[in-house]
Write a structure and sequence with these properties.
It is built from 3 helices and no strands. With about 80 residues, the chain is an all-alpha fold.
Length: about 80
Amino acid sequence: MADRFRVDAGELDKASPQVAGHFALDGACAHFGGEWKFGLKQLNETLHAIGAGLDATAKAYRDTDAVIQGTLTGKVATGRAAA
């Protein structure tokens, strides 16, 4: 049975009351398409925010590591007055 099932994605764009047979179905398809587009936009914004957060986190780790390494090797002032 599965070997006979095929979908022509290009034909899906042509779904309309004339093809689907009912105006309610056409409206539901249009609503779903709008919701899907909105959801994808929000997902894209969220992924960009996560990416920016990960970049900031990685930079903070690199900066902290550099300060610790500099402090341990005596290349960075520790803020204490010289004795």
